[in-house]
Structures are given as structure tokens and as C-alpha cells.
Amino acid sequence: MNVHATTHDELHAEIADKFDTDAMAQESTLLNPRFYTTDFDELDRIDVTPVREEWDKLIGQMKADPNKGHFKKTEAWDKVDWDAMEPGLKRELIDFLVSSCTAEFSGCVLYKEMKRRGKNPDICELFNYMARDEARHAGFINDALREAGVAVNLGFLTKAKKYTYFRPKFIYYATYLSEKIGYARYITIYRHLEANPDKRFHPIFKWFKEWCNDEFSHGEAFALLMRTDPKLTESFVNKLWIRFFLTAVYSTMYVRDHARPAFHEALGVDIDWYDQEVFRKTSTIARQVFPVEVDIDHPRWMPNLKRMERAFRKMEAAEKATGLSKTMGKLTAGAQAAFAFASLYLIPVKKTTPPESVRLEPAF
Questions:
Q1: How far is residue 174 from each of residues 171, 249, 341, 364, measured CA to CA in Å?
Q2: What's the domain range around 200?
Q3: Is 200 within a domain?
Q4: Grouped pLDDT means (10 residues each) for the chain, 364 residues
Q5: Does residue 135 contact residue 65 with C-beta atoms inside 8 Å?
Q6: Does residue 114 contact residue 124 with C-beta atoms inside 8 Å?
């Protein structure tokens, strides 16, 4: 009898019993990645003529597919000792991987649907390349989960996950920020672990450098899409929407990261420092297309992020209560979160002037 194999299988079964990753991926809350649908006919009518020169360069880079062979396990993939991992870190690492896999797969589903429904050759080609990249990302993360015996059933997730409808311009704002903040998160972790390799508790972090360049180029695509119609970033109402999405994406990241204290402690990073560093990088990058910038150094910024984080913790606690305590607890916590968000949203923004040429290259 192969004792090692038996122990390995038993470990997988034990982890699978504790972590229902399919259920985790299906959850639809304010903090969990969502699946989106949109007006695909409106997307199909986009005319990229105003940004044709920069568009063709970006499409050429995507077509060349520089990361074609990157998302494969090599000898650099160290064995993960799930059995010896501290239980809190194990739980938060699996949560991080499931959340990341769901977010990547969400992009793949949206982009693939646009490719399937569209007739506009420029838009279809773009979404085809982005769907390809996101499928690789999701598959690679799922392989990491599969090692622990808790891979997400992505095929089932496509049918079981609830879809949220967003107008195309909201898709632009949200996805642009998601891709750029993804770049900022991955490169910040990668650079930190480059300087502190003893803190690299999982091999997937070694793949972050090239990976984040995919995120960056996807963000570039949405920056160009927004440049095809000046109203998307220049009208008064849309500036308010941009401000909303900046505040929502940043505050959601803050709350979500503070739910993983063991994960960040194992990385050796202070969560407040890390989030502010990611916000700073993202804000610098977003000047390429957004005319407003959140003031993350304002005196009201950090205190209200902390208030929002506390409100969400109270909301989680209220979910475990019953009857009137549950109802009142959720209402009170929800009101506190809404007040904190409003305080963040009303912080005066910094006005910026996007450059004439929208394209950027990764520089961090």
C-alpha cells in the first residue's frame, strides 16, 4: 500500500469537506466577484476609428500572445504542504484563490459572450483575445485549487452564478478599474516577495509578474474603448459615475483584504500600507483616461474605510443571528456602511487632464 498517496487523498478529502468552493464561488454579495451581462448590441456598434493607430498596436501585441506558454507549472512550482499550513492561513488562501478564480472566469464569460454575439470585427477580435487570457488565468488558479482537492466546477458555475446587468459604460468603468487594480495588486505582491522570498508561502506568486501584464493590457483596451466617445469621461454625469466606481472599487478592496489578516500577515505586509500602495498605483495609471482622481490622502479617507470595514463585520455577525436581532443588526450595519461610503464619495476629488495619447506601458 502507498501510504503517502493514501495520506494525500485523505488530506484532499478533509480540505474538501471544510471548503465547499463551488458554493463560495456562487455567492452573490457586495464583496464577492460577480458575473455580468450587458447590452451587447451597443458594444457591437463601437467605432474605434478615433483611436485606430493605438488600437491596432494593442491588438497586435495581444495577437502575438507573449504569455502563451506562461501559465503552466514548471520546476519552479514548489510543493504546497497543505497539511502543515496553519488553519487560518489555509482558509484565507483558499478564499483568495477562489475569489481570484471567480473574478478571472467572470471576465472570460463576459468577453466570450461578446465574441459570440458580435459582428464588429474590431470588437470581436479584442474580446476573443481577452477571453483567451482570462480563461488561462482562471484555469491556472483552479489547478492550484485542484492540488488541494477543492477545484471550482467552472462549467457548473456558468449556469449557477447569478448575472448582474450593467450598461456598457458601467462595464467600461468597472472592468477598467478591475483590470488596472489587478495589475497594481499583483505587481505590488510580486515586488514585495522579490525582496522577501522567505514570505512566498505559495508558488503561484512566482507567476504574478507576466500575469499582471495581461491585466494591464486589458485595462488599456477599456481605456481605448472609453476614448472612442468623449462623453464617457467628459460629461458631468459620467464624471459622477467615475467617482462612484473609484470609491466603490477601492472601498470594496479594503474591506475584502481586511477579511484576510492571516494571509497578509504570512506575506509580511501591513494591509493598510498594501491597500494604499495599490490605490496609489491605480490612481496614477487611471490618469490616462479618468478626469478625476480620489484623494486617498484626505483626512476622511482612512477613517471612513475603517468604519466601512467595521460595518461589514457587523453585517456578517448579524447574518448569524436570528429573528429581530438579525433584522435590526443588518439594518444598523447597512446604514453605517452607507454613511461611511457617502463620506468617502463626498471627499473632494482631484481633477486631472488625461494625456492626448492614452496608451501606457507597465512601469512598476
A1: 5, 8, 17, 22
A2: 21-228
A3: yes
A4: 44 52 60 79 94 96 92 92 92 93 90 90 95 94 91 80 87 94 95 96 94 92 96 96 96 95 97 97 96 97 97 89 86 94 97 90 78
A5: no
A6: yes
